[in-house]
């Protein structure tokens, strides 16, 4: 994931107070960044979690579930820094008692807790536990 910010010209970039460059008009950087702006318009961009995104979301097609009960594995393109994250699962068309299992830094398994085939997609969200500003 790439995030692109357009900023006014003549922006100075510093790392721990050391000037890196000036007269920047565009920042390009990968995900895993937090941006804050103070009351004076000073923007601070910082990395968190070793570049890992703190929020991940996706959709699993109904046909991806197999076995009895029906299960599907969600694999992240980049792992969380730990297993300290929460998971939310929603079925678009199927009323189920959704649960997850085998939670790891790079994946988890969605369990439908039912043997019947699904008729709709399943949405999921995973977010690191904590407060972020």
Question: Describe it for me?
Answer:
- By secondary structure, this protein is mainly β.
- It has two domains: 2-47, no CATH class; 55-128, Immunoglobulin-like (Sandwich).
- The protein has no helices and ten strands.
- The protein has strands spanning 2-15, 18-30, 33-37, 43-47, 55-60, 71-75, 85-91, 99-104, 107-111, 122-128.
- The strands form four sheets. The chain has a three-stranded antiparallel sheet with strand order 5-10-7, with no helix packed on it.
- A hairpin with a 2-residue loop joins strand 1 (2-15) and strand 2.
- It is elongated and about 55 Å long.
- The two termini are 20 Å apart.
- Mean pLDDT is 75; it is low at 1-11 and 21-30.
Task: Set out the fold topology.
Blueprint: E1 2-15, E2 18-30, E3 33-37, E4 43-47, E5 55-60, E6 71-75, E7 85-91, E8 99-104, E9 107-111, E10 122-128
Antiparallel strand pairs: 1-2, 3-4, 5-10, 6-9, 7-10, 8-9
Entry keywords:
single chain, 133 residues, mainly beta, Immunoglobulin-like, 2 domains, 3-stranded antiparallel beta sheet, 10 strands, 0% helix, 55% strand, elongated, disordered N terminus
Summary?
The chain has strands at 2-15, 18-30, 33-37, 43-47, 55-60, 71-75, 85-91, 99-104, 107-111, 122-128. It is an all-beta fold and 133 residues long.
